[in-house]
Amino acid sequence: MENLIVPFNTTTLTLKQAGGKGLNLSKTARAGFPVPPGFIVTTEAYRLFTRTNQIDAAVQTLSQDLSVDDPAALQAASQKIFRLFEAGGLPIYIQTSLLTAYHQLSAQTNQAAVAVRSSATAEDLPGASFAGQQDTYLNVSGDEALLLAVKHCWASLWTERAMAYRARQANPPVGVALAVVIQHMIPAESAGVMFTANPVTGARNEIVINASWGLGEAIVGGLVAPDNLVVDKATGKPASAIIADKSVMTVRTETGTQEVPVPSGKSRQPTLSKPQVAELAGLGAKIEQFYGAPQDIEWCYADGQFYIVQVRPITSLPPEPLQWAPPGAGQWLHGGGTFEMITEPFSPLFETFLLPIFVDVITDLLESAGLQGVLPPVPYRIVNGHIYLHMDLRLRPWHLAGVLRDFAMHLNSLQGQEGENLRYRQAVAGLSQPDLAASAGLSSARLLERMQALGQAGMRYWLQIMKIVQVIYRQENAFTKFYNRRLRLRCTGIPEPEIFLRGQKVKPWQAECSAFDLAQMAQKLGLAKKVLEAPEELLNGTEGGAAVQAFRAAFATHLDLYGHQLASFDLSLPTLADDPRPVLTAIQTYILGKESPYIRQQHMQAQSEAAIATAEGCLSGPASRKFRQLLSTAQQAACTREDALFDVGLAWTPMHRTALELGRRLVQKGLLAQPADIFWLNLAEIQQAFEGPGQPGRLFEPVASRQADHRAWSGADAPYLLPQGSRPAFWWKWVFPTPELNRQPDAHTIVGLGVSPGKVTGVARLLHSLDEMQRIQAGDILVTRSTTPAWTPLFARLGGLVTDLGGPLAHGSIVAREYGIPAVMGTGSATQRIKDGQIITVDGSSGRVTLN
Questions:
Q1: What whole-number distance in Å separates Cα of residue 608 and Cα of residue 439?
Q2: Which residues, 6 or more positions from 190, have their beta carbon under 8 angstroms from its beta carbon?
Q3: How far apart are CA 270 and CA 213, in angstroms?
């Protein structure tokens, strides 16, 4: 019978003996932490009591087949079981051992009062805490009161809430048992709960403390709103503090405890001083370090000392939030504008294969603008898988002259863009031969070289576009300024300046017309229902009559001409040629009755011509000629930029397919599970994998780990600038014009740049990637971080557009104007402030988004 009662310092205790609470308190006390002295009535005593009093069989019968959805039955069973425990007699050897340990503890502490706490074997576990399911009795004094409190603790294993909790946790009642912890009762001046990680945000660098006057039961029982302190774990200093009006406190009485009003002078006072907060937080951090995981700790304070009365793991901690901070002090990082085509976390293959080329392109861009030596040696930083430009620029006075010189040189570059496009197309066509179907004779090294050459061609072409972006921006801006100053202040009834830039026959419009033609074709061939209900079966099946074959051929031709639209510069994301779902969405939209893009373009062109006539009616002489000149230049610039950007992805379709071919070969070698896993390897790993036989399966684990990181990063909202809340310097706005961020006039308004006029009210559909595009319904307002060319087919379905990134020349703004939908871009925070499904109003003229 020696295992019935054991002291805290017993080194051989197990969960089965002491229950979760008892085991944790024993460990904590033996580690030297300030735990009030005490002992444990083990589960063996519980089992002896129930066997002696023949309670086991009755409990099993009463608790069997109970439903958590039948509270009345749970309550009736619980009451019957409680009466069995209360009427049961304690075997003499349990009673003698218990009272002997109690008397020894009373002599040690010079106090008869103890706390009697239940400790179940299924309690305080990493997977489920069972917190509060069994009973605790405070300020218990005397032999009879102690014996009764122990029996009541045992009976609390069968309260209706405890039985329901076990049922929800799928924890069968057979074999459960309860230990009881008996501790010296601390006459607490204050008490509370401490979490060594933030239970709301998941932040592991924060400790959250709840504190109130008196015993901790007022907090645990929800009788009082305690002080709430969020403490920096590293410094022990409060990051935030809410001092509550503490109206009630639990205090000791001669026969137990009771709730009394807090003295008026103390109710609004902080329960803990700053030094006490630091001491308690430090104690919590050490306990967490001892257990190796965040802990939920009950504490109390008396006579100048903190005591730990309960320790359990936190069982429902949210994932740790991502820390968005520059990797070094004094760094300012910019994540938008330049990186419009890389707005999501990228793959290891992109980082090690295309990113070096990408950086070379940026360097060349700045040097061509007369900014030699401006960039630091490593001009980018990677934060949570996102690329940020490290804006440690070394600008000198003579750089201004270089920029002006470069600007003048590129005034004529718009004329040469068609030649650049032709050279790019020819380069991609040459590098794509032989095609992959005939590439079995090509070595893996040769395929890697092909990818490298395609990447260089693609980035060089992108550089040509970036060189003309500033010219395009300033030409459009010049027209807008002239229009606003010379006409809008003098004439009434004239339209927004964006009206004049609509109705252009840019390549995205041509691709849209092709999708419309496919919709018309499907209707004429009697395939409309198939396109709406089973498009993948229609396109990917091997069987079908002449109509099906004709439609498949026409769809393939569309992808050959327009399928090189990019979702991202990252190779892991396919172009429309390999993932044509957005094209199918557009075709379905036109089948369902969306207006023809041919007719829409005619209407817009007519509106533009009418607007021009109205404007010229207000002008004469040189002013009229100036208006015509600036308008023509702005229209040409907008078309040039969108047509040029439309073809950036020409190299990405063969690059993506070549990478998958390499992945297929690694699958054959047993190194990867599927071809697409190659995107989660770095370039060196791929090269090494092809150099020798390799160990089968050795790359499975790193691939899975990197994919998991990517999923976590993809679900986060990456700030536009780091440190968060910083503002771009004036020179950055001048070199790379970007919208002003985070303008927030009130809680219901977001302000960005109005890039496509009009006003629309509708359902906000928050999308983080094209994989979610099926959630878009006709007339929805797309809210996203940024759009790239692969998003274009979705615009046929949209009622409006709101983005975090981008400006008047961003892809989304020009396409939105061509589709005639209101758009506000460059808000900086739309995806964080707008909820999916929320009703919002987009005013593309004023640049304001109203949250209804």
A1: 51
A2: 211, 212, 213, 214, 271, 272, 300, 301
A3: 10
Rounded to whole angstroms, the Cα distance separating 379 from 370 reads: 17
Q: What is the DSSP string of 83-116?
A: HHHHHPPPPHHHHHHHHHHHHHHHHHHT---EEE
Tally the residues of the chain: 852
Q: Rounded to an integer, what distance in angstroms lies between the CA atom of residue 111 and that of residue 95?
A: 20
Any bridge partners for residue 261, and if so which?
248
814: pLDDT strictly greater than 80 = no
| Same-domain pairing of 150 and 205 | no
**Separation in Å, CA 544 to CA 549, 551, 553, 583, 813:** 6, 10, 12, 21, 41
Q: What is the DSSP letter of 437?
A: G
**What is the Cα–Cα distance from 191 to 306, expressed in whole angstroms?**
9
Q: For residues 358 and 458, state if they share a domain.
A: yes
Tell me how far CA of residue 602 lies from CA of 487, 488, 516, 609, in angstroms.
Answer: 25, 26, 15, 10
Least confident of 50-54, 204-208, 486-490: 486-490
Query: What single-letter DSSP state applies at residue 354?
Result: I
- % of the chain surpassing 70 pLDDT: 86
pTM beyond 0.90: the answer is: no
User: Of 184, 208, 241, which one is at a domain's C-terminal end?
Assistant: 184
Tokens at 379, concatenated: 């001009």
Instruction: Specify whether the CB–CB gap between 684 and 594 falls below 8 A.
Output: no
- Looking at residue 809, its pLDDT comes to 57
Residues 6+ apart with CB under 8 A from 201: 318, 321
For residue 793, what are its two tokens? 């087919």
Number of continuous H segments (helices) and E segments (strands) in the chain: 27, 26
The answer as to whether 556 is a domain residue is no
Give 269's contacts (C-beta < 8 A, 6+ positions apart).
243
Q: Identify whether 394 is part of a domain.
A: yes
| pLDDT for the residue 632 | 86
With a CB cutoff of 8 Å and minimum separation 6, the contacts of 584 are: 531, 535, 539
Is the same domain home to 211 and 241? yes
DSSP 153: H
- List the beta strands (DSSP E) in 342-407: 380-383, 386-390
Span 533-584, pLDDT tens digits:
988 888 887 778 899 999 999 999 999 999 999 888 899 999 999 999 999 9
pLDDT score of 399: 55
Q: What is the pLDDT of residue 251?
A: 81
Q: How would residue 128 be classed by pLDDT, with cut points 50, 70 and 90?
A: very low
Range of the domain at 308: 190-313
Q: How far apart are the first and last CA of the chain?
A: 71
Q: Which two tokens stand for residue 746?
A: 């009130």
Residues 677, 751 within the same domain: no
Q: Which amino acid is at 726?
A: S
Shared-domain flag, residues 51 and 135: yes
Highest mean pLDDT among 17-21, 414-418, 806-810, 814-818: 17-21
Q: Which of 514, 509, 583, 561 is nearest to 817 (CA)?
A: 509
**Which residue shows structure tokens 């070549």?**
658
Which CA distances in Å does 511 have to 247, 305, 437, 506, 535?
69, 75, 27, 9, 19
Angstrom distance (rounded) from CA 146 to CA 166:
27
Residue with more model confidence, 316 or 482: 482
Domain end: 184, 217, 245, which one? 184
Q: Domain with 134 in it: what CATH number?
A: 3.30.1490.20
Rounded Cα distance, 148 and 201, in Å: 42
* 434 and 374 share one domain: yes
Taking 50 as the threshold, does the pLDDT of residue 127 lie above it?
no
